[in-house]
Each structure stands twice: as structure tokens, then as C-alpha cells.
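hey can u check if this looks right to u? its 253 residues, i copy pasted from the old doc so theres a chance i mangled smth
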Amino acid sequence: MSTAINASHIQREPELLGQTVVVIGGSAGIGLETARRASVEGAQLILTGRNPETLQRAASEVNALSSTAFDATDPALLAQFFRDLTTPIDHIMVTAGRPSYGRLIDLDLAQARRLLDEHFSLFIAVARNAANKVKAGGTLIFMGGTGGRRPSIGLGIVSTVTAALPALTANLALELAPVRVNLIAAGFVDTQLSASLLGDELENRRSQLRAKLPIRRVVQPEDVAALAVHIMTNTALTGATYDVDGGQQFVAA
């Protein structure tokens, strides 16, 4: 008698059932895709974003508990958002912000400070405000990148942030324990943000990556979201940086 099991008949409980996930920068791109995947896994969502209309559409799509439109890089507004949270939080994903390009020697000091501040201060501010809001064993997930690991003219700020974020993540993991802190380092991801940055060059960039990347395709928001949800559910993961770039950092792409 065959003892084979039909895999289609195997059922599992959603991995985030009964948990609450906050996505800062959850109105589009990687943030929204993470919210979608977390929702499928049974999570309740709280979303933030800068654009009220875009955020409302995203919140409606994932049936979010609530949504708040504000600029997460504003320390006072960020602190107010956390003070207003009344629901116990299990996980926080931070995707707010965008890469900054340009020669370092062309930046005045005020501009350089602002660009660095948008990344470091945001993550530190989220960690400080979330310290007493996230349940033990929950996680903070920050978004970084792999592109800056190869120095290049015009990538000075990106390279600096890329080098520093893993150390920041590891230290926060020790300070916030037993809350877990992890970093996702992505390469090029095919999002609306990428399209806005590249304009008419978008399709050329896609073609280059399909030809050169070891995976022979372009990384999608779904790829990053799958990793984010795995980090949420695997409670042994903390203080680490996880690459999701299709091997982009290993090739001249």
C-alpha cells in the first residue's frame, strides 16, 4: 500500500496568525509587498507612509488595522506615532527612505549631514521608540543595500551607509534583546521607486541584470517580502544582515 502523502492536502496554520506587524513605508514597493505577504500569513497590519492617498489605498488592500500618513524622518512625528500605538506590536519593518547619489566633494556639509541623518537617525529613532512597544521575541527589520559595497564615484553616501548599517544592526540587537534586530540588504529591486530614479533607462537596466545576474532575472519586491516574513517567523535570527540581490554584488552589473 502506498504511504505517499498528497502535498496539496497538507494544511498549515498561518505563521503570523494573531500577530501585529507595523510597516513604516508600507504604502508601496517592498513595504506594501511585505504587508501583503504578512497579511496572507494571518498578521494584522499597521501601515505608515508619506502620501495619504497612496497609503489609504494600501491600507484598504491589506485590510489594515490603521494607517498614519507622516514623514518618518521627522523625529517628533515618529515619536508621536509610537506614543499613539495602543496595540501590542510583534514586528516592525522599516522601508522608508531612498538612496542618495552624487559626488561627496560636491555636497555641502549640511546636505551631507541630512542625507546620512535620513538613514542612521531614522533607524536609531525607530529602535528607541520601539524598545518598549515590541514584544519579546519580536523583531525590527531595517532595509539596506548591497550596491555600495563596491566603491564608485557618486556612491559615497550609499557606500558609507552600506558599510555602517550592519554594525548598527548588530549593536541594536544586543541592546534591545530579547527583541530581535535584523537588516535586509537588497540590490536592484524592480519597484516604482526604481522606475522613478531610472526613468527611460529602466528597461535597459532590467535587460542588463537579466543577462548578468546569476539568477538570470530581476529581483522583485516579492523576493524581499518573503525574506522579511521569514525573519519575522524564525525566532533564532538576530543581529544579522541578509542579502537579497540575485548575486548582483558579485558581477559587474
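Residues 15-194+221-246 form a domain with the Rossmann fold fold (CATH 3.40.50.720).
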